[in-house]
Amino acid sequence: MRILLVEDDGQIGDGLRMGLRQLGFVVDWLQDGLQARDALSAAPYDAAVLDLGLPGLDGMAILAAWRRQGSDLPVLVLTARDALADRVGGLDAGADDYLAKPFALAEVAARLRALHRRRQGMSQPLLSHGRLTLDPVGRVATLDGAPLELTARELALLELLLCNRGRVLPRERIEEKLYGWGQELESNALEVHVHHLRKKLGAGFIRTLRGIGYTLGEPA
Fold it and tell me: Of all helices (H) and strands (E), which one includes residue 128?
């Protein structure tokens, strides 16, 4: 999942960015409200974590602007404003979830995963395809019940393909989902990840549509 984090507190923002990355998220962090208002066109985000007290533009104004732009991006409001009126106002303004500070990283991650499942129309936390099962929470993939040794990028690619079963994902979209701002991307990195997954899951598990992209093939 690629997440847009909008938080002006340096300690909180850095902790969230590092913690979520360790849990398998791709995180882009902004600290200015005006930049955040126009940020959704920069990448195909799966969700946003939005603080309310921001320099440049208040979080509620950012949320309103996103909704006026027609964005249905799931938004988790994360703020010190925990009064009932603030929570109700945020949800009525278009937020999908609301979490007051202080918070636990595990809960932020769980709420983001729940928002992502809801957007994808998935009711179950586990993803499966034939004999393969992926647990996005535990970051573990199994084949016939046996754990697979996968790198963080291979896990992220596998999760992306499983969440888009039946769809063809262009190369550019996959790269945008797997790599955040400032993360170096070698020209053949995606092909290497696909090659390694095919070796572990079978040659037909990922189909290449030349000039178009990748999609799930035969179940493992």
Answer: strand 127-129
Integer distance in angstroms from the first to the last C-alpha of the chain?
Answer: 23
The DSSP letter of residue 53 is S
Alpha helices in 121-208 (DSSP H): 152-163, 171-178, 189-201
Within 10 A of 107 (CB to CB), how many other CB atoms are there? 10
Are the CB atoms for 173 and 22 separated by under 8 Å? no
Sheet (strand 140-143) strand order: 127-129, 132-135, 140-143, 146-147
pTM of the model: 0.80
Residue 39 in contact with residue 31, Cβ under 8 Å? Answer: no
Q: Among all chains, which residue has been given the structure tokens 């092909």?
A: 191
33-83 pLDDT, tens digit per residue, is 999 999 998 889 999 999 988 999 999 999 999 999 999 999 999 888 777
Domain that includes residue 24, residue range = 2-120
pLDDT 10s digits, 143-159: 988 999 999 899 999 99
CATH code for the domain of 45: 3.40.50.2300
Taking Cα atoms as reference points, which of 198, 197, 191 lies closest to residue 213? 191
Are 58 and 150 in the same domain? no
